[in-house]
Structure formats: structure tokens, C-alpha cells
Amino acid sequence: MIEPLPSVHLSSTELGQETALSAWNSLLPPYRVRLPIDADPNDFRMDVSAWLLDPLVIVTGTTSSIRIDCEGSTRKQGDGNVAFVLYLDGEWTGDADGKPFAVSSGQLLALDNLRPSGGIATESRWVIVNVPKLAFAQMFSEFPDLHGQAFQSANGEFLAEHIGSLARYLPRLAVGHTDKFSRAAINLMAAAMQDVVVRTGANLSLDHSAVRARVERYIRQNLSNSTLSPQAIVQDLEIARATLYRAFAPLGGVLNFITQCRLEAARAILLHPEDHRTIGEIADVLGFSSPAVFAKTFSRVYGCSPRTARSKGVTSLPLSGRLLFDSWRDFLKSASSK
User: Fold this and answer.
1) pLDDT exceeding 90 applies to what percent of the chain?
2) Which ranges constitute the DSSP H helices of 201-253?
3) Average pLDDT of 263-268?
């Protein structure tokens, strides 16, 4: 039986205007959602659905006119999420860190949830994709300044079309599609982000991106080789050791990256409903020295053993979209039981 993507639904028709608005505020930290000063509370309407395409949380909805503000946070800028906001109908005007923005039908905007923003939206229909910044760690040595940026390049337009199409297709996707579709979306986002970097002249170091791309291909093609190491990469790709180490320093080093790639592959296997390889077979095919080393490494990173991940169909990956999504689902269960 095909397992659909996890989803939650929030509607003012089902919960009532006041409860729905209160629930939405509880589900969107650090944002505050409220009605415009001249709005009649009885006219407030919302119909919102959230889908988990881990690590992405995709929220689709229609709302009457609202004001949305974010105070920002003192957490490190490398933490947190970036929201890609696509307006299908309606308008949203406001500012991000004092920089004005305006989006309307068909336009795409990025906001950093750790930095201040605010604005008023008309009655509108939209899609928001929440992405952990860590999802881009392999692509950028430091996260670019996207706060309040509109995507106006060809890649940006293509990303907007992709997000709109993905939102329409979500009800038909299955859990087994998660890795493929989330990775495709993240790659398209990265391409659009790089266009913004070039257009704005943002201070972003991409000097080693070509080296990293070449090495990453080599690593992913040789994950099953237990002798995969920096020395092997240096010899086979004829790259200077110092260049290799500098290229991967922002990602915690090349050895850490190799382990991360192996664990990502292992996690995808464990969560795939039709892959029944044993823990030992997974450890062997991904180049771990033993099942015990694999289990210990997996547990340290994902917060549970490989067997638990397979049986529950989930890991507790830090900053994963699942953590955000589960908090929404738990809150709605609590609200509906009152």
C-alpha cells in the first residue's frame, strides 16, 4: 500500500475565526499573524495545508487580509530556516530589515526567519516552502543574504513554476518519493540563490565550488569503497591536498563530508518502504568498516538507531522539517480534542 505524504490542515471554517488565528500564531514561531487595524474579525478566513517533504515543509493556503511580522532572533545566522514565498493571487507589501519589498501574483520572495520582517497581505493564495539552511551546506561555503530578495532571473522563474507545480502535485506524492523530490527542489533553489548572489554582488565565497562539485561526484560514486579517503581522492583526481582541505573546510572537512554522504544514503535506504536490505548489508554497501560502526555513527547523527529509524519511518535529524511539521500536527491534535 502506498503511504501518502504526512499532512495537516487548518481551517477557520472548522475551528472558527478566533481559534484558527490563535492556532496559526502558535504554529509559526517566530512570526506573529494578526488582522489589519481596520479589519472585522468576523471576516477573517483561512484554509491552510502543510505537507512534509522532509527536510522541506510546504504550506499552501488562502487567507483574507492579514499582517505578518517577525521580530528576528539572536541565534546564529547559519541556523534556522529560509522561507521561499510564492504568491499565486493577491499582494504582499512590507519590509525585510528595513528594505521594502512587494510581491504579487507569480512572484517569489525569500525571507530569513531569524531576521526582522513585516508586511500586510491582501486576500491571497500562496505557497510557502520552509527549508533548513543546513540543506544548502554542501553548496555554499556560507549562507547568502537572501532576506527580502525577489527572484527575477530565468532560474528564479523556473523555481517559481516548479514550486507551483509541486504544490498541486503534493496530494498524490508518496513517502517513497520524498528524497527524490526534495533534492530536486533544493537544487533548483540553490541555482536561483546563486543568481541572486551574482546580481546583488553579495559577499559569498564560491572559489572552491568547482573543486567541491568534482570531489562530491567522486565520493558519491565510491561510497561502497571502504578505502575511500582524502589520500585516495588526492591521488585519483590529482588535486593538491591543501586545495582539497580548503574546499571542504566550511563543511567540517572532507572526512566529515564522506561520512555525511554515507549516512544520507543509509537514511534513504532505511526509510524506503520497498528496500529490505539488512543493517549489515547496508553497512557493507556504503563502505562502513562494520555494522557496529555504522550503527554508532548513525545514532550519533540522527538520534536513533538504524533499526529504530526503519521501524518508525523517521529520524530525529536536527533542524529537519519533520520537527517543525510534527509540532504542528501535535498542536492541531490537541486543539481538536478540546
Assistant:
1) 33
2) 209-221, 230-237, 241-248
3) 85
Report the 10 Å Cβ neighbour count for 142.
14
Q: Residue 301: pLDDT above 90? A: no
- Residues with Cβ within 8 Å of 104's Cβ and at least 6 positions away in sequence, in order, are 87, 90, 91, 92
From residue 267, give the alpha-carbon distance in Å to each of 179, 191, 206, 251: 10, 25, 29, 19
Alpha-carbon dihedral of residues 87, 105, 108, 43, nearest 10 degrees? -30
Q: Of 283, 282, 275, which is closest to residue 313 (Cα–Cα)?
A: 275
Lookup: cell for 308: 529504530
Domain boundaries, the chain: 7-205+321-336, 209-302
Q: What is the pLDDT of residue 77?
A: 47
CB-based contact 30:70 (threshold 8 Å): yes
User: For 209-302, which CATH class?
Assistant: mainly alpha
**DSSP-derived 3-state class of residue 94:** strand
The predicted structure's pLDDT at residue 136: 82
Q: b/e string for 175-192 if b means 16 or more Cβ within 10 A?
A: bbebbebbeebbebbbbb
Q: Measuring CA to CA, which residue among 55, 60, 74 is closest to residue 132? A: 55
pTM assigned to the model? 0.65
Label residue 303 exposed, middle or buried (CB < 10 Å: 0-12, 13-18, 19+). middle
Q: Could you tell me which of 17, 7, 132, 117 has the C-alpha nearest to residue 60?
A: 7
Give residue-wise pLDDT tens across range 202-258: 444 445 667 888 898 899 889 888 889 999 999 999 888 888 888 887 666 888 889
| CATH code reported for the domain at 7-205+321-336 | 2.60.120.10
